[in-house]
Amino acid sequence: MNRIDRLHAILTHLQSKRRVTAQEIADRFNISLRTVYRDVKALDESGVPVIGEAGSGYTIMEGYRLPPVMFSQQEANALLLGGKLAEKLTDGSIRQHFEAALFKIKAVLRSTDKENLDNLNNHIEVLRFRGPSDENADSHLTALQQSIAERRVIYIRYHSGGKEELSERMVEPIGLWYYSMYWHLIGWCRLRKGYRDFRVSRIQRLQLKDETFDGSVHPTLHGYIDSMKKDKSELNEAVVTMQNEFIRYIRESRYYYGFVKDEAAGDNCTRMYFMTGHMEYFARWLLTFTNAVKVESPQLLKDTMASFSKELHQHYAG
Description:
- The chain is α+β, with helices and mostly antiparallel strands.
- It is built from eleven helices and eleven strands.
- The strands form three sheets. Strands 6-5-4-3-7 form a five-stranded antiparallel β-sheet, with helices on one face.
- The protein is globular.
- It starts with a helix and ends with a helix.
């Protein structure tokens, strides 16, 4: 990247956040801090109102706006791909805002790039399985983002999938986490007096309260995730081998059951590792593959599979 392009990119970066540190700029553009200082000084001398705050970072004077940005063809293609993902991996509240933003972005594209996007649009698709529990959860993500940004307490009516319970909670949200094909809300539950993981598709009702909370008393989302990786007391590892000819049937569904990794196991089989907190539920899923799957560990899973198999035999033999 030449210096002119870098100066333009640094200005865009400065406008993307309320405050940007010199180290952030250095890391993003792979340049030294000395170069950052020179580039920021050059922007200031060219008339850009950059305000430097000692020990804090740089800000752009309120009211200053960069003229409409022209996107490259590759950047426009990336936005199209992002739009496809947003369409299938978010809910209705997010999709309508993303579509509006994408129309504004397309308005500043060159004619050739607009034509390229139209041609490319019909050649990219994202497929996602949506279960019955997703059908009524189509408007929560926008409200959840607002509650996290403004540190507002939320009320939720939540349906627990494991215990089949319906409960009402007051929650202090700390973040949204996408894993195992679903969005999850992480927050401090006042009812349970602890941090809880709520699958967004199981939230039947949500209301933002006027009450705010002190976010400094909670960990960041990344801090929470790191602690979960260190503390797996509520999860158990399950190791199974499956015949390769059946693997194609579980490429996507295995993530619903805590899939971690796989490896070749010889004899045309694959060894798969899962982390699950519901061994009985996991065993019922494995049972659908009959003798195509073999449990290696733990013993509890082996015993559970044996018990289910015996019950099934008695049911049909009787």
